[in-house]
Specification:
Two copies of one chain form a homodimer. With 370 residues, chain A is an alpha/beta fold. Chain A contains twelve helices and 13 strands. In chain A, helix 1 packs antiparallel against helix 9, helix 2 crosses helix 9 and helix 10 runs parallel beside helix 12. The longest helix of chain A has 21 residues.
C-alpha cells in the first residue's frame, strides 16, 4: 500500500534562534521566480548582480566574491581547503564551537594546526596570538567574528595585523555578523572572509558568500597540490562565475535568486542603518532581560548584537521554557551548544527578525514563563 | 552613488537542456512555505518524510538515505570521499564528463585510480571492467548510469556483479536517471548511489539525494583516517538526520521543503508510470528528429530516455540555433561538452519537462530553424 502524503504546511514562526532568521516577502517571492538554466543570459545577469551586491555588503573590491553552493560550514571548508596544503601551518583562535570546527577542518586539509584558546564567552587575546605565532610558520591565522555558540564579537583588526606582521593570511568567519554589524573586509585586511545566508542577510539557509583577496588569490594560484575538495575548488568555480562561464556544477538557481533579492533588501535599507538597527534592538533586549533579572554571558564590550547568550537562572528548565515558547508563542530561541548546553539560551535578532516588536513578544513571554 | 536594483524578473522558459528541468507548481509553492528552524519539530517531521520518500524513489531500504546540502557534484564528492582513504584503489568507468570528474575527485581523496574507458557515446564493457579488476585491489568500482554529457544509459547490474565478485563496493551516479528510468538500488546491489534534484525529480537545483547500503556503511565505520571533507562527512551528518538530531550544519530548509514536495509529486504519479512516460516521450522525440533528418549519437539500446544527444548536421551553426530557440521560443536545449562541443545538442526531457507538447514545440521550432 502506498502511503499518502499531504501538501507541506509548516507553521509561521518568530525566528529568534541562532538562524535561520525570518525571511522578508520579496525574498520569498524571488525564491518562487521561474527557474531558468544556469547558462541562460537572464541568469548570468543575476550572477553579475549578486557579485556586485555581495562586494558592497562585504565592503570589498575582491573579484572572487561569490556564494558557495552550500551552507556557512561549506564556506568555512572552502576557505580553509583552498588556502591550506598538507604540512602548512594554521593558527586558529578558539573560543566556541566554530573555532573548534575550523581546527577540525584544517586538520582534514593536512595542515599542522596550532590553537589559541580563550574561555567560551570571552574574546581571544591578540597578544596571545602574537606569542603563539613566534616560532610557528603559520600560513593562515583564522578567527570567528561573531561566535554563534557564545555570543562573543571578536575584534578583528588587531588579529589581522598580527597575522600580516608574520606574513600569514588572515581568515575571518563572518557567518553570523555580516549585515548585522560592521564587517570591513578590505579596510581590516581580511584575506578570506565568508558568511551564511540565513543570519543577518535574512535569506533561507543554503548558500554562503565568500571572498578571497589578492594575497589569498596568490596563494591559490601558487598551490603545489590539488585542492582536496573538487566541489569547493575556487579556481574552478571562478571559471563559471568569471567571464569564461565554464560549467563546473549546476548553480542552485532559486537560492541565488533569493540571495540576490536579500542583498537588494539589505542595500535598500542601507548597511549602516542596518547595523544601527541591530545595535538598537540589542540594547532594548539586554535592558529588558535585565529587568527580568536575567544576565548576559558575555561582557558588554564583546557582545555580538545579533546573537545574545543569556544565562539560564538556576532551577529553570531549559527545554521546558523553549518548548513552551515554541508551542504557545510560535517563537524559537536557541539552546546552548557544547559546554554551554543547558546553561544559556541563544537569542538571535538577525535581519528581519531584529525588531522591537519581536523583542517585546519574547520579553512578555519570558515574563510569564519564568 | 548607490546603484538601484529592480526586483528580480526571470523569463518563463521551456527547459529542455541537461537540467534544470521545469518545476511543477506544488514544488514552487513548497519553496515559498514559511522557513522554520532546523530543529523545529515541524521540520524534523519533514525530514522523516523526505527520507521515507527518498527510499521509495531510490528503491532501497538503506537507513542512510538523505539529501546532501549541495548539488549533484557535491553528492559525487560525498560518495567518493566517505568511501575512499589514501592509497585505496578506485576503478572508474569513463565514457564522458562525469566519469572523468569521478577520477578527478577520487584522486583528490588520495586514492589510486584505475580507469576503464569507452568512446563517448558508447557504454563501458563489463568484460573490460572484469579484466581491469585483475591484479588491482579495488575498494570501489564506480560508474555513471545516465551520462549527461553523452546520452548513454549504462547497464549497471553486470558492473555491480563484477565489483562484488572481487569484494569491491559498487558506486553508481544516478544524477540524471533517477525518477526518469529504473534505478533499483537494492535489487541491483548498488552500495552507494546519488542523484540531483534538478533532473527527473523536477525540483530546483541545490540538493542531491544519496544512499549508502550496509556494505558501504561498514566501510564508513571502519575508516582509519578522517573523511577529507568535514561538510560531507556522512557519519556526522547521519547524527543530525538520525535520532540524535545533533547539529552538524544548518539544513537548507526551503530546498528540503521543495524536495519533499517533488518526491510527493513523483510518488503520486507513480514511479513506473513516470518511467513509462519518459520512454514514450523519448520515442516521440527520436521519431520526430528522424523525420527532420537528424540522427542520434547513441545506438538505440543504450539511449538514456531523458537526455538525448543529437548530431548537429554539417553546415548548421550550433550557437545560432540554440540562441534562436531561446530568443524566439523561450526554449532551452543544451550544447555539447568536452570532445562533443559543437558536435551535438543535448535535449533533455526530464520530469515536468517531459511532455509530448514540449517535444512538439521543439520539433516545430527545429523544422523552421534548420
Amino acid at each position: 500500500m502506498v502511503k499518502r502524503y499531504e501538501k507541506i504546511n509548516p507553521p509561521n514562526r518568530i525566528l529568534m534562534g541562532p538562524g535561520p532568521s525570518n525571511v522578508p516577502a520579496p525574498v520569498m517571492a524571488a525564491l518562487g521566480a521561474p527557474v531558468v538554466g544556469h547558462l541562460d543570459p537572464a541568469f548570468l545577469a543575476v550572477m553579475e548582480e549578486v557579485q556586485e551586491m555581495l562586494r558592497a555588503v562585504m565592503r570589498t573590491e575582491n573579484t572572487l566574491t561569490i556564494p558557495v553552493s552550500g551552507t556557512g560550514s561549506a564556506a568555512m571548508e572552502a576557505a580553509l581547503v583552498n588556502v591550506l596544503e598538507p604540512g602548512d601551518g594554521a593558527l586558529v583562535c578558539v573560543n566556541g564551537v566554530f573555532g573548534e570546527r575550523m581546527c577540525d577542518i584544517a586538520g582534514r586539509c593536512g595542515a599542522e594546526v596550532r590553537r589559541v584558546d580563550a574561555p567560551w564567552g570571552s574574546p581571544v587575546d591578540p597578544g596571545a596570538v602574537r606569542k603563539a605565532l613566534d616560532g610557528f610558520n603559520a600560513k593562515v591565522v583564522a578567527a570567528v567574528h561573531a561566535e554563534t555558540s557564545t555570543g562573543v564579537l571578536q575584534p578583528l583588526e588587531d588579529l589581522s595585523k598580527a597575522a600580516h606582521e608574520r606574513g600569514a593570511l588572515f581568515l575571518a568567519d563572518a557567518v553570523t555578523s555580516l549585515a548585522g554589524a560592521p564587517v570591513e573586509v578590505d579596510r581590516w585586511g581580511i584575506d578570506v572572509c565568508y558568511s551564511g545566508t540565513q543570519k543577518c542577510l535574512s535569506c533561507p539557509p543554503g548558500l554562503a558568500p565568500i571572498t578571497f583577496g589578492p594575497r589569498a588569490m596568490e596563494v591559490l594560484t601558487k598551490r603545489k597540490t590539488k585542492v582536496r575538495s573538487w566541489y569547493l575548488d575556487m579556481t574552478m568555480i571562478l571559471k563559471y562565475w568569471g567571464p569564461d562561464r565554464a560549467y563546473h556544477h549546476t548553480a542552485p538557481i532559486s537560492m541565488i535568486y533569493a540571495l540576490r533579492e536579500a542583498l537588494r533588501v539589505v542595500l535598500e535599507e542601507g548597511l549602516e542603518k542596518r547595523w544601527e538597527r541591530h545595535l538598537r534592538v540589542h540594547d532594548s533586549l539586554v535592558r529588558g532581560l535585565g529587568k527580568l533579572g536575567l544576565s548576559m554571558l558575555v561582557e558588554k564590550p564583546y557582545r555580538a548584537p545579533m546573537i545574545n547568550t543569556v544565562v539560564i537562572p538556576e532551577g529553570v528548565n531549559d527545554l521546558d521554557v523553549r518548548r513552551r515558547l515554541l508551542g504557545e508563542y510560535s517563537l524559537e530561541i536557541g539552546g546552548g551548544l557544547g559546554v554551554l548546553k543547558g546553561k544559556v539560551w541563544r537569542i538571535g535578532i538577525m535581519g528581519d527578525s531584529c525588531t522591537e516588536e519581536n523583542v517585546g513578544i519574547l520579553l512578555g513571554a519570558l515574563r510569564k514563563l519564568l
